[in-house]
């Protein structure tokens, strides 16, 4: 065809000329949301050329070229816009729909107090889209709007959009990239106009929940005036919300629900959801406590568990114990759920549900929230999605101004990082609350992703009941004082609908109060015989001296070690890794002493061989930060992996090792939660460097060190912290041993510093084989991983006993000893080599391998050989104000003979944990070794 004729033909095509603007507007709507344009146009746009790395957007020059190609192809069916101004109006209507989906939440009626000042959203107004009152009676195609109709009058559509997106629910989901997820949400919200129809039974159940929430707070306020209870008043809808959530969870097949929350409303949840006996709570308020071996904790930190009856069967509920440290309980909950899912052999998350309840200031302000969201879709920490509920009382203690609380529009914006849908809902509309609860859980179950519900409410009292909120929020509290409670608002609504009379609703309140007076469970769904998700009975009542047999025959070790040291023939390991595995074959055969990596992995192999499951996480746990573990062998040809510990024998225990996200706080809290829910597994977390564990200090302080004493929660989590002074500077030397020793009391945990492969082997086996579950803190080595003296034989491993203390190993006559040097860790080898070099025979070196609980019995046995010695030294690498000196010296003073002296040999006190220069480090190290070994005459 002649070029001029072609041009004329193209310009007369329906895809050219006057229709270009229509097509481009339609395409822009498609780019915003593919579901907003008719199916036939979507098919056309879906076939446009793609730019590499971009899902939808392409260059407009390419788009126009494609349209020209479509027009030139006479045999291809194309969709044509009708002529006239109505075509442009149709595009505007589709853009209007999209505007409500994107920004309707900004005009929603969310604040029960009516204090929110929202800016005008022009996108939601008809004239912004060049639509007028004259268009209201016209019929338009509604595209993907899920009303069940292909066309609607504009006035009906506009009304439906406002009901759906600007009522009591403000939905944010257009930030989600998955078209399938967006379509699902649109269908659920738009088909009901976000205004569900509930039957009478459901409405009465909601009213009973509000009545219980209000009734408990009023009862406590009257019976214990002025006592702190961190009232739920104003956020009463949380109670029917949680009950609705659990009912629906049971109906959808969930067997367990784990809840984590801070103190706001916790007592109400304990009584009105979990089914705790009110009389027990009243006794706690009155100061009546039962006999307890621990310290106990305040009422609003306590946990609880119970069984909740639903149509789908009983659901086991657990409210996690947690401190006031705001959001730290969230990863603990996720870890607990992961353990339950693993125990139930559920890979999808369908059998256990995590529910976390946040404060509005806390979810925006605490960094562990971001860390926990970041865990949600990873292999090691996924739980199939969670339900996150924000009790948004628009106030953080005394801070209410948004610009002081956060830098985002909503407190929930952090959830957009994982593309979680967010439902803002007015708590004074409990039916809307119930509706979004159902939608949220169904979405989580369908797509296995996090969902956030922002329960916009208020706080009727101060931060606690003794505070005076009018001092800092006068206008808000003048409004709150006049505002009716949620139960009254809903009772009036149901009375107007003829669902229940005013007298009958008052009788509900009276019946609830009578239930509190009698001190019986007030939750009718609670079952008396509570099943326990895991059996801790065999681990209760044991102490450090509990007998156990850790030994294994050498032949058994050789057999297991041989399996451990092999991988498939076609699996090409890196040359350095291949050499390590060749050495491990020799070690397994008894032809070469075992190094640290072999002994450690052999300990794991013997445990999985015995049917014990092992879970290990850390930022470099598969390989090992210091290139020693290599539990995962990477194929150099195709990057596939082989894990020998998963192939020890048929029917073995599970072995899982994960390189974790770059987090300490959330990951360690997750592993704590896992270990407290699973007593039979060996659960380990390894820091990249021990120094980095300080990012998780709150977990050590609030959970690991004191969880048993505060809440009776046993935990066998093992923490491995690389520690040792090799001249690598202040942040790569010290795991802050002193901090852990400062936390030690009441036999709450173990702190060990093993120095040989046999010791790490025995220590790890002891942690699992011994029927005792307490945290184990291990100062693991760096340079000792390949130290020529840090080796062990198979015979030493076969014995399997961890030595809390190790006496002098050289052939030194105790009678000639004039000085005894106590030490722990790597410095032992520096002392040993220097003493051997000097051929000293008058100094004995005694290693303390377990610093807590301090091994007094073993110390006494060793000291029996040195009763004549009057010169004792404690030698450490750490500065004097750090390490074990200040926390442990009293044990040495108690052990040495009367009249003897105890001297410190080590670095001088320092604000920094180590020096930054290798030359300085070497001088300091040589000096402290010399100081420990030199006897002044």
Automatic annotation (TrEMBL):
GO MF assignments: oxoglutarate dehydrogenase (succinyl-transferring) activity; thiamine pyrophosphate binding
A single GO cellular-component term on record: oxoglutarate dehydrogenase complex
Matches recorded under SMART domains: Transket_pyr
InterPro entries: 2-oxogl_dehyd_N, 2oxoglutarate_DH_E1, DH_E1, KGD_C_sf, ODO-1/KGD_C, THDP-binding, Transketolase-like_Pyr-bd
Keyword Oxidoreductase tagged: yes
Keywords: Oxidoreductase, Thiamine pyrophosphate
Domain Transketolase-like pyrimidine-binding: 594-787
Cofactor(s) demanded: thiamine diphosphate
CDD domains: TPP_E1_OGDC_like
Protein's UniProt keywords contain Oxidoreductase: yes
EC number: 1.2.4.2
PANTHER family linked to this entry: 2-OXOADIPATE DEHYDROGENASE COMPLEX COMPONENT E1, 2-OXOGLUTARATE DEHYDROGENASE
Family under the similarity heading: Belongs to the alpha-ketoglutarate dehydrogenase family.
Purpose: E1 component of the 2-oxoglutarate dehydrogenase (OGDH) complex which catalyzes the decarboxylation of 2-oxoglutarate, the first step in the conversion of 2-oxoglutarate to succinyl-CoA and CO(2).
The name this protein goes by in its record: 2-oxoglutarate dehydrogenase E1 component
